[in-house]
Design brief:
Layout: E1 10-13, E2 18-21, H1 35-38, H2 44-56, H3 63-66, E3 74-75, H4 83-87, H5 96-117, H6 127-148, H7 173-191, H8 203-216, H9 222-233, H10 236-239, H11 253-267, E4 270-272, E5 276-277, E6 280-281, E7 285-287, E8 297-301, E9 344-345, H12 347-350, H13 361-365, E10 396-400, H14 401-413, E11 418-419, H15 422-434, E12 443-444, H16 445-455, H17 462-468, H18 472-482, H19 498-503
Antiparallel strand pairs: 1-2, 3-9, 4-7, 5-6, 8-10, 11-12
C-alpha cells in the first residue's frame, strides 16, 4: 500500500479559500483549524503541501479524453456518450470534461498559492513545501496553456469577495510560458538538496519540466532546454534517474526480450503472470505497487486500491468526507475502460505498433488478446493500466527518464530535420535499445516523433508532441480526413469553458473555432 499521504488530512473550503486539517479526521468538525492556526503548527506547511498533491489527483481523471483521444493514437466507440465527440474534434464549450479539467487544475493552483502566499512564514525545515508549491503551480499552468492556449496565470489566492479575478485576464501563451518557466526555476532553488521522493516534486523534475516548457513555447528556446537537460542526462546517476534496462549478457535473444518486456512493464508498476514462449508472454499484466517506485520514474501521482478512512480529498464536501486516494487516474484507460469505448487503438497506430516492429513495447502497451489486425473493426485495447475495475491503483507518471532522453535529442536537433550529434544519437538509442531495436546513426525529426509516439502511447503525450514539433495540422488533418472527422487547425486547443465565460461576462474571450 502506498503511504505517501497516509495520516495526512487536509480539507479545503472553496468558498472561503481557507485550509483546515487534523491529525485524525473529525467528521463532525472538518474545519477545525483555520489557515492561521494551521501555519502555527510544527508541520503546517507539510500538511498544506500534501493538500496540493491531493488536489492534483483529480487532474488526470479525464485528461485522457482531452489529449490522447484527440490524437491519432486512439479512437472512441461511436455508441458511447460524448466520447466520440472528443475523438472527432467536435466538442463545444459547454462540455463538462472541458470545464472540469480547467477547474481541477485551477483548484490545485489555488492550494499551491496558499503555500506561496505564506512562504515567508515557512520554517527552515519546511522550505521544501514552498518549492513543491511553485512546482505544482507551474505544472498546472503548463497543463492549461497546452490545452487551452491563452489562459490567465494566477499567482495568488484570489479573494472572491473583491472580484480579484478581473486582475487576471487571459495572457498570450508566450507570457504564460515565461511565468511557468520562472516558477519551475524558483522551485529548483527551494528543492535543491532535498532528498528525492518520486511521489513529490524534486529539483531534477523541475529542471526537466522547465526544459519541456522551453521546448513547448511558441518560439522554442532549444539552447536553454539543451543546457537544462544536459545537466540531468550527464549526471543522471547523481539525480537517481535511469532507464529500466537489463543488459543481455549471455542470455539468448528470446530471454533478452523477455527481460526487456518485463522491464517496460515494471516502469508502470506492472508484473506479468505466466511464462514466455519464444520471447512472447503467455500471461497477463497486473499492477504490483512494489515496482512503481523505480529509477525511471521522476515524478508520479500516487493512487491506491486500499481505503484509508483518515484521508480526505481536496474537493470533498461536508457530506462526503471519506474519499480516499483509491480512485483511478482515468477509468477509461484501465482494463475495463473499453466498456466506455474510449481506449481503442486506432488502425493508423496499429500500423506502427505490431509484434514484429515493436517486439518489446507491443506486449507491454497493447492487449495482445484483443489484437487482431486482420479485422479492421476490431477493438484493440491498452495494457499499460491493467486494473480490472473502476478504481485503479496504477500511479500516474507525470515524467519519466525516457522522456528526458528523447527531449534531450529534440533540444539538440533544435528544430532541424536531422542530426548526427553523438549526444543526441546516444540518448535516442538508449530508448531504442530498451525497446529491442537497432541503433540509429542519424536522429531525424520524423524518427524522433515516431519514437515518442510508440514509447508514450496512452500517456497523454502524442497531441502535445505533434503541436510542439509543428506537425499537428499536417498529421491530424490527414487523420481526420481519412476517418471522416472534423479537425481544423483551430481545434488543436480546447474551447475555453463556457462556465468560466459566464462567471465573468465579457471578460474572457472564447478560443477561435468554437
Amino acid at each position: 500500500m502506498k503511504k505517501i499521504y497516509k495520516n495526512i488530512i487536509v480539507c479545503f473550503s472553496v468558498a472561503a479559500l481557507f485550509s483546515s486539517c487534523a491529525e485524525e479526521l473529525d467528521l463532525s468538525n472538518p474545519t477545525a483549524l483555520s489557515i492561521e492556526e494551521l501555519l502555527k503548527t510544527d508541520n503546517g506547511f507539510e500538511l498544506l503541501s500534501n493538500g496540493v498533491l491531493d488536489a492534483y489527483q483529480k487532474v488526470p481523471a479525464n485528461e485522457f479524453l482531452l489529449t490522447e483521444l484527440r490524437s491519432d493514437n486512439v479512437r472512441a466507440n461511436s455508441e458511447n456518450g460524448n466520447y466520440p465527440d472528443f475523438h472527432a474534434y467536435n466538442i463545444d464549450p459547454n462540455n463538462g470534461d472541458v470545464a472540469t479539467y480547467y477547474s481541477n487544475n485551477m483548484s490545485t493552483i489555488k492550494h499551491a498559492n496558499t503555500v506561496i502566499d505564506n512562504r515567508f512564514l515557512a520554517p527552515e525545515n519546511q522550505q521544501y513545501a514552498v518549492g513543491e508549491a511553485y512546482f505544482m503551480r507551474a505544472l498546472c499552468h503548463f497543463n492549461l496553456v497546452r490545452a487551452y492556449q491563452n489562459v490567465p496565470f494566477i499567482d495568488k489566492v484570489l479573494d472572491i469577495t473583491k472580484d480579484e479575478a478581473k486582475d487576471y485576464p487571459q495572457l498570450p501563451e508566450a507570457e504564460v510560458y515565461a511565468k511557468i518557466i520562472e516558477d519551475f526555476k524558483t522551485s529548483i532553488a527551494y528543492l535543491d538538496g532535498v532528498e528525492l521522493n518520486r511521489y513529490r516534486p524534486s529539483a531534477g523534475a523541475a529542471i526537466c519540466l522547465a526544459a519541456k516548457a522551453y521546448l513547448s513555447q511558441p518560439n522554442p528556446d532549444f539552447k536553454e532546454a539543451e543546457l537544462l537537460l544536459a545537466s540531468v542526462v550527464e549526471n543522471n546517476d547523481a539525480y537517481g534517474f535511469d532507464l529500466l534496462y537489463t543488459e543481455r549478457g549471455n542470455s539468448s535473444m528470446f530471454e533478452h526480450y523477455e527481460n526487456l518486456i518485463k522491464d517496460f512493464g515494471h516502469v508502470f508498476g506492472n508484473e506479468i503472470s505466466g511464462d514466455f514462449t519464444g520471447g512472447i508472454p503467455d500471461g497477463s499484466w497486473s499492477n504490483n505497487d512494489g515496482y512503481e517506485i523505480n529509477e525511471e520514474v521522476i515524478f508520479s501521482i500516487a493512487y491506491d486500491l486500499f481505503s484509508s478512512d483518515n484521508y480526505v480529498t481536496s474537493d470533498s464536501g461536508l457530506n462526503d468526507q471519506v474519499q480516499t486516494d483509491s480512485e483511478s487516474h482515468s477509468f477509461a484507460m484501465t482494463l475495463q475502460g473499453p466498456s466506455n469505448g474510449v481506449n481503442i487503438a486506432s488502425l493508423d497506430f496499429l500500423d506502427y505498433m505490431t509484434p514484429t516492429l515493436q517486439p518489446i513495447r507491443f506486449y507491454a502497451s497493447i492487449d495482445a488478446i484483443s489484437y487482431n489486425p486482420s479485422v479492421p473493426t476490431n477493438d484493440t485495447f491498452n495494457a499499460k493500466f491493467p486494473t480490472p475495475g473502476e478504481i485503479g491503483d496504477n500511479d500516474w507518471i507525470v515524467l519519466r527518464y525516457a522522456d528526458v532522453l528523447l527531449m534531450y535529442a529534440e533540444a539538440i536537433l533544435a528544430g532541424g530535420d536531422s542530426t548526427t550529434d553523438q549526444r543526441a544519437v546516444d540518448a535516442f538509442n538508449q530508448v531504442r535499445l530498451r525497446a529491442g531495436l537497432n541503433d540509429q546513426a542519424n536522429v531525424t525529426k520524423a524518427l524522433l516523433l515516431q519514437e515518442r509516439r510508440l514509447e508514450f502511447v496512452y500517456e497523454n503525450q502524442r497531441l502535445y508532441d505533434l503541436i510542439r514539433f509543428g506537425e499537428a495540422d499536417r498529421v491530424l488533418q490527414k487523420f481526420s480526413d481519412d476517418n471522416s472527422l472534423f479537425y481544423t487547425n483551430e481545434k488543436k486547443y480546447l474551447p475555453f469553458p463556457q462556465r468560466e465565460l459566464d462567471n465573468l461576462p465579457g471578460f474572457y474571450k472564447q478560443n477561435n473555432g468554437y
